[in-house]
Design brief:
The complex is a heterodimer of chains A (about 160) and B (about 110). Chain A is of the alpha+beta class. Chain A contains two helices and nine strands; from the N terminus they run ααβββββββββ. Chain A has two domains: about 5-35; about 35-150, Immunoglobulin-like (Sandwich), CATH 2.60.40. The chains are: A alpha+beta (about 160), B mainly beta (about 110).
Chain lengths: ~160, ~110
Amino acid sequence: MTSRSMAVHEPAHSRRQALKFAAAAAFAAVLAPRMVHATEAQVADELKKLFGGKTMAEGKVKLDVPEIAENGLVVPLNVDVDSAMTDKDFVKSVHIFADGNPQPQVVSYHFTPESGRAAASIRMRLAQTQNVIAVAEMSDGSLYSTKAQVKVTIGGCGG
Amino acid sequence: MALTSKPRLRVQNTAKPGEIIEIKTLISHEMESGQRKDSSGKVVPRDIINTFEAAFNGKTFFKAEWFPSISANPYQSFFYKAKESGEFTFTWKDDHGEELKATSKLTVA
């Protein structure tokens, strides 16, 4: 008796499971490409962790990135912050974010008056067309930021 | 990936007092982001150089925290204001806690 009811039940059960699984897979396939990338909100979260809710001014930070990057694996980035770099007035740090990469952080620089100039160049990966954001923290605690969009032809994510 | 390759430095050996000099560094490294999958579909674990530091006569004047978004074979350029003669020490640190150092002498006159 029990074995017969099992026999009747099993196919129905497994078909339901298979349907459920298929639905879940389809759902994941639709969501996955979006979920693995950071968003503007995530960048805002990172900034909140670093600086609380402090307001940011525009200016002082010059961010040099290409308008169009053919190869997202190697995108040149140059950041240059306007500062006298004296013992009393210098750039403490510069944080770079990319709001469309799997992880929004790209690089964090820590400068000292001995740096002479708060500028640095590096090469980064960009997974897709997105905004690159630079935030500079001055020795007096004030914040300056700027952003630039980079159009990416071939993404540098995964491979 | 072990830190075995010899880093490449481009930095002048002489400078005038107060001169701001540019330093360029390059090191060979995969910078495995932890996002990539191998041919069998398994995620290749993250393995990157996460810190670069530049010091002069033992005092750190520039530090960079690198994240997985940094390209393979990371290039880094930055500046230093020459004051006195001495020696630069450049240090790369990876996810395994391994370190690689390179030095360069500077004469200020």
